[in-house]
Structure formats: structure tokens, C-alpha cells
Amino acid sequence: IRYLSKRRQERIQLIGDLLHREGFDLALLQEVWSEQDYSDLKAKLGSCYPFSHYFRSGVIGSGLCVFSRFPILDTLLYQYSLNGYPYMLQHGDWFCGKSVGLVILKISGILFNVYVTHLHAEYCREKDAYLPHRLVQAWELAQFIRHTSKAADVVLLGGDLNMHPEDVGIRLLRGWTGLRDAFAEATHFEGCEDGCTLIPKNCFTVKAELLPFPLGIRIDYILYKASSSFTVTCEELRTTTGTAPGRDIPFSDHEAVMATLLIRRQGRAVGAAPSTDEPALAEVVTEARTEVSVGLRAARQQRYSKGRMAVRALRLLLLQPTAALGALAGLGAQQPFPKLSFSLLAFLAVGILLLATALHLFHTMEVKKLQGTEEQMGMALRALRE
Amino acid sequence: IRYLSKRRQERIQLIGDLLHREGFDLALLQEVWSEQDYSDLKAKLGSCYPFSHYFRSGVIGSGLCVFSRFPILDTLLYQYSLNGYPYMLQHGDWFCGKSVGLVILKISGILFNVYVTHLHAEYCREKDAYLPHRLVQAWELAQFIRHTSKAADVVLLGGDLNMHPEDVGIRLLRGWTGLRDAFAEATHFEGCEDGCTLIPKNCFTVKAELLPFPLGIRIDYILYKASSSFTVTCEELRTTTGTAPGRDIPFSDHEAVMATLLIRRQGRAVGAAPSTDEPALAEVVTEARTEVSVGLRAARQQRYSKGRMAVRALRLLLLQPTAALGALAGLGAQQPFPKLSFSLLAFLAVGILLLATALHLFHTMEVKKLQGTEEQMGMALRALRE
């Protein structure tokens, strides 16, 4: 983030150097909040990554961009319908308009659907108020991938999912899309222990948050799957390990994940993908749906309390002219009419009325979205059971 | 709209009767703003349309719902990234969270992707301030259909597009997706002249808006296309014609569009779809892009002026303590310190500051979205030219 992030330009330069040196086929970046940084990278990497795309969204931007050695044929952006609260300024997620970006590439005649995303952060694991929103995002991500990837030979998803490998959201995403985790499947692995991407050793991470996890946590992923005529395997997976080689700072607060994937055309198309374990998947969807329901109850409560606040402010406001008339009519003749405090009170009432109404509308939208997701998950469950 | 629409319940009942009597395979409704109305229709139509879905979105709701004789396999909602302005309360579009809903059906082994949508209204054709937003919506609709329909045998789109048949948005949508207009292709037609769906004869339409169009306008559509292994033809197209049979009121302010489509499996799959006229398509995309650029300039101007207003309010606010200190220090000793007007001014400054900041953020998002669409259209143009 411009002006806020420490040694930002230096790190963008380090990231550019790394991308240049490694010469990947494809690089997916998140949290590139400054479009200037994207332009700088684009200028620097033009020779080795002639194709790139920056996804614009929200107030600040989605932060998502892609650099590619191969032509980008098309792009599409899907903005998640829920993404935290605009009044949680200290968490800022709402302002980024968190999204999933799709780029379509053709490499050696193979059609790739590549998704890059960044889900809502987890600020407190014990009492994660954003879990329902993140689950709605994971569900929308899974649905978006399912519906847009039907013509693709290979599907890749990379990004900061802000979920631990065993969390319900990641199980939902993997189960519902059939995507596989490159870390779990890699033949060779090199990097932070357990594939962690947020480690205490990194000087930009918040140490207190990682106290229960001395090795760090794994929240950044590369996932993949192939259509029935192809196979994908992960030959090698690597992560960066804290500081950049020969420097005193790391590239980013998260460690980069780098995968070497082997894609093979199958002699004959296999009829159907290996059938997923449907009872297990139904269990995951049920678990996710329960969490969404919890969020729905909370959102309904918020909608109600904000509505009540608006009504009270309105009543206070309506009381003013009555009281003023009373005072003028001589009821308060003993004391002078307190004009100043009266007008202050009226302004306060107007302010509260506007704020409470805006929040009431916001939570009405939240309720609708959570309700819609709960219903969709219910539909998925019925389909699974049949 | 509850409490606002005239004879609402009676008309919902008439619509239910019509749907029941006609026994369609599929009905796509728009502007069903009240979920209660949807529930009433659902209860009434359970026997002939056992499957249905209501798309939830925005503050009021998307207003979109689907009734089907065949099981709905899956659904997905895509909310348009631009949809008017929240402060244009009299136009209300922003609050509906205008979207496109997708339902997936299988009928006799044929996979249908059915899209239902409602684009931003046109309030003034001569000076249509919402044209860039509607074009962004038409583009996102086209992109969403392209990316999600690749596995479908047949694609159907129905809805209130708020565009005349020759408007750039509809040409863009048709050109970019390959969808065909049922009205233009129908073997038999029965209904309002020229297929109009907003006619002066309908007692709920605003007569003044239709003055330049004595026959009315056609802004509601059924569009379709088939994959290479199928063909679709429109056997018959009908519209309602003002008042419901035997009643003094029409079903709605728009006339309903009813199509009988014939879908045939092709003996052998044709290699590629009939190639579209690429230079003509490039021309349409260029025309649309120019309109989006006009919108982008206006949005930038708005963002700038709202930012300036916020800065001025902040300056006014900072002036207050200075002036107050000055007054207390005796500079204004002649006159009593005007506490009341000072506090009123401070409140006013805070109010303007908050409002201008919110609007500045809103227009920042608008700029990003218009810019993103302009860029995407540019990418499409390059692809077309190559």
C-alpha cells in the first residue's frame, strides 16, 4: 500500500528481479494495491512476460494481476458479493472489492483457465467474525470456477485464500470444484516447513498472531485440475523462505509459492472424472452452510438493531419541534430557550438517523446475500443426496 | 413494489393465472421486488411449475425469478459492477443490485443455460446519463454468457434490457455472444405492432416518454443460440396487448413476450459456428467503447469535484477552532462569541465532509470499473483484428 507499506518500492523491485530471473510461464500476484507498482513491474518485465493484466475493482483496487509468457485471450472479473464491512476501517477489506480474476491462455494448444484471487483476511482465529463472509466467498469462487471452466483443458487457481489447509472453506472449495492442492501432491518440495507461507521468521508478519503456530501457517495455494483428456501432476513445489537472497528484507509478508506442473495429454479421454466422495462432500457443504446460517442470524440481528436505532433517532428529531413549540409557548418561561443545545441535539439526531439508515440498508444486503448462499448450498446438498 | 405499485396483488394474481393457464416450460420474471409476491406465485404454481428460483441481490432484491417445469440443476448470480448512483433516489436502480441470473436445466437430455436479467432503465433518451453504465452491464452480460455457457447445448436469454433493437448495447450483446433475436427470426408473430413491449395503450406506462414512439418501443427480449450439435428456431412469438383478457388492467407496465422454440439435434456436429462478421463486430465494440470513454471522463470529473468539495469542507472545519480561539482571545470582544452559528457551521462542515468523501469514493469505484471495461473492450478489439 502506497505510503503505508515499509520499503515498498525496494520490494517491488526485488519481486521484479525474482520474476525476471526465474522466467516463469505465469505469475499471479495479489495485494498489488498501487497501479503504479503494476505499471513499473509491467515495464520491467515486458521482455520476459510480454502479456499481463491488472484487475480493477473496489475503491482501492482488487490488488490482483497476472504476468504471462503466453498471450492472454480473455479475462473476466467476479467481485464477491460479501467482503466485510465498510465501517471496519482498520480492516480495510471492504474497500478492496475482493474478487476472483479469470484469464484464459492457450499454451501449446492446451486451453488454460487461470484464476487468481484473494479472500477476506482472518483477523482473529478464535472469534472470526468474518468466517461467514469468507465462506460465501469460497462458495462463490467454487461456483464461478465450476461454471466458467467447462471448456478448459486445465484449471489453475492461485492466491491468498486466508484459510488453513483443514479449514471448512478450503475443503468446500476443493470438494466442490475437484481442484487438487499442489503442496499435498508435489513430488519434490523445497521451502518453509509444512509449506507455510506466513512464517514468524518473516519480519513483516505480526508475531502475536502466529504465536499458536510456531512454524507458521499455510494460507497461500496453488490448486489445479485437468479435464478428462489431460493429466496434471506437480513435479516440484517451492516457497521463498523469509529474506530475499543476499538482502535483509523479504519480498513480501507472505512467502511466494512456485510450482512446476507437468501436463500430459491422455491417449484417450477418460469417460468421467474420478467420482468424488459424495457423502463426505455433503458433510462439508453442511458444515459450511451451518456457519453461513450463524452469520445470517448475526446479520439479521444487526439489521434489526440498526433499524431500531434509526427509528429512535427519527423520534428524537420529531420531538424537537414539539419541545421548541412548547418552550416558545411559555412552558419553559422560567428558563431561556436553550437554542444551542437544541440545535446540537437536532444535528446529532440527523447524523444518527443517516448513519443508522445506511447501516440498516447495508445489513439488509448482507442478509440477502447470506440467505441466497444458504439456499444455494441447500440446493447443492439436495443434488448431492439424489 | 409493495405499497407503491397500483393494484399489485391483483396483477400478481393475473400473472399467476396466465402462467397457470398457458403451462409454459419456463417463465422468466423481472421486477418481482417483493419476495412475498414470489412466494405467493410459487405456492400457486407449484403443480405446473414445480421448480423455481428467486435471485437475491442488492437492498431491494434483483427482482429476478424463474419458474420451470423441469428441475433446476444449478444457479449462479452475477451482479453488474455499475448500476447507477445511490443518491439518485428517484431512479432507485442502484438499490436493486441489478444482476444476471443463470439457471441450468436439462430437458430431454439437452443442457440449457437460461439467463434472466434486467438492465439499468433509460430515463431520458435524449440525454441518457446512464448509457455508459448500461453499456458496462451489456458487456458484462455478454462476457458472463460467453464464459459460462461453453458446456451448454442451448443458451436462452430473457429479460428487460432497456435498449431499443438498434441500440449499440443490444448490437454489442448479440454480436459478442452470437445470440439471435426471437422477434426477428420468428416464423409467426402475434401481438403488439413491431413487437413493442412498452406501449402507450398500457395504462401503467408514462405517456410522455412514449410521445416520439406512437407504436411504443421494444425493450424486452428473448434471445437464443445453440451449440454446434443443435439448432434452435422460433416457431411462434407472441406478446400480450395491454389489458388482460376480460379485465380493465394489464398484467404489468411491460407486455409479456412468449416464444415457442423448436430445438433439433443435428445429425453431425458442424465444425464451427457460422463465422460472425468480424469487421462489423469490431465497429460495434468501438462504438460501445467510445460511449464508455465518455462515461469515464464524466466519472473522473465527478471524482475530482467531490474530492475538492471534501477538501474545502475540511478546511472550513479546521478554520473553526482557529476562529473560536481568536474570538476567545478577545479579538471579537466587541461582539459576543456566536456559539450557535459556529456550532451549526461546524456540523454542516462535518456533514459535507462525510458526504463528499463518500461520493468521492463512489466515483473512484466508478472510474475503476469504466476503465476496466474500456480496457477489456480494447483487448476484444485487438483479438478481433488479429
From TrEMBL, chains A, B:
Primary localisation category: membrane
Range of residues in the leader sequence: none
UniProt membrane topology term: Multi-pass membrane protein
Names of required cofactors: Mg(2+)
Keyword Magnesium attached: yes
E.C. number: 3.1.4.12
Record-level GO cellular component terms: membrane
Pathway(s) annotated for this protein in UniProt: Lipid metabolism; sphingolipid metabolism; Sphingolipid metabolism
Gene3D superfamilies in UniProt: Endonuclease/exonuclease/phosphatase (3.60.10.10)
Domain of life of the source: Eukaryota
Keyword terms: Hydrolase, Lipid metabolism, Magnesium, Membrane, Metal-binding, Sphingolipid metabolism, Transmembrane, Transmembrane helix
Pfam families to which the protein is assigned, alphabetical: Exo_endo_phos (PF03372)
Catalytic activity, as annotated: a sphingosylphosphocholine + H2O = a sphingoid base + phosphocholine + H(+); 1-O-hexadecyl-sn-glycero-3-phosphocholine + H2O = 1-O-hexadecyl-sn-glycerol + phosphocholine + H(+); an N-(acyl)-sphingosylphosphocholine + H2O = an N-acyl-sphingoid base + phosphocholine + H(+); 1-O-octadecyl-sn-glycero-3-phosphocholine + H2O = 1-O-octadecyl-sn-glycerol + phosphocholine + H(+)
A GO MF label: sphingomyelin phosphodiesterase activity
Record field: transmembrane: 313-334, 340-362
Domain Endonuclease/exonuclease/phosphatase: 7-254
Subcellular localization(s) per the UniProt record: Membrane
Any one of the GO BP annotations: sphingolipid metabolic process
Family: Belongs to the neutral sphingomyelinase family.
Full protein name: Sphingomyelin phosphodiesterase 2
